[in-house]
Amino acid sequence: MDFATQRQAMVALLRERRAISDPVAAGLLAVPRHLFLPGVDPEHAYRDEAIVIKRDAEGLPISSSSQPAIMATMLDQLGVEPGHRVLEIGAGTGYNAALLSHLAGPRGRVVSLDIDADLVAAAERHLSAAGAGQVEVVCADGAEGFPEAAPYDRLIATVGVWDLAPAWLEQLGPQGRLVVPLDLRGVQVSVAMEREGGHWASRSVVPCGFMRMRGAFAGPDEVHMLRQDGELTLWLPEPREIGDVLTSLDAVPTEIDTKVADLSAAPVAGMGIALWLALRERRWCVLSGKLGGGYGGTVALVEGDGIAFLVGEGTMVVRGHGADGARLAAELAGHVRAWADAGRPKASDMRLTAHPRPAGGAGPRPQAGAGDVIIEKRHTDLLLSFP
Q: Considering the domain 4-207 in this protein, what is its CATH number?
């Protein structure tokens, strides 16, 4: 059974929801995703869902086959053309590498890196089974790139990155483009960037959510498992002390209706309020797992034992728990109203430039204008501008 009908249905659904170019749609129709997920029901493989393929010792997901919708979006951001040389950071199942190979064609070359030897071996098997054995899969820390096959026309990371690795920028050709899920104080955006003078400038910015990069290039974020069954976690953009949040969540909440309309199925979905908090609020975090009657994720403020988080019930409602819950709820509600009064800015409204730091940290730094934000990373300074 070739499951062509399931692929056609998946692509039709994706094209109903967003614009997808003909070359990318053709790749999704041609490459059999179920062959890259041998332990998954083939019909499940063609749903528009991410599928976890590996967990760490604590049960937290560390690798997955990404949601087809964001894969298609990022492939269109990347703009692979026949004959291109492409480097992928994060091989996973090998499915995205097969799509890249389909786009690059027989005259192109695709190299895919992964830090885990078992994932590399599995990706090679999957690629061979799907007839895409020409993809080169290498076990290596993606932060170093793969200089042996440089220069590249395109570079894509399918794992969340905290900073732009100098090796990636060095290994891209003069007209090269990179697409990475980049961390902006805890919010991820898929940003397509090209050279512009002495820095890199965004060509498009799209909200996304990926598992974070591991190894020497990992960011400072940390995850607290509030319940040991893994069904409730608190994600912090950087390490800091928190109190007994789990006990606080059992307390009767303070609720504040912000009167701000919830235009999405979940408050975090559009990333607008999350980005607003990330750029303004050191106490922000993400609460995810089993909340109320179902599973999901939402933005929150946490301080001490107290926590306040956002829920969508037609309008955005804030719930505060614990000794400081009422105060945190009022502050979070204030952020929501300020974001709405500012026109509900979102990630796709933003222009981002990345300015590599000279060796030793000397030299000019970007200057922020009114309303701009500068985020300092290890190797680059990011300048965020909004209309």
A: 3.40.50.150
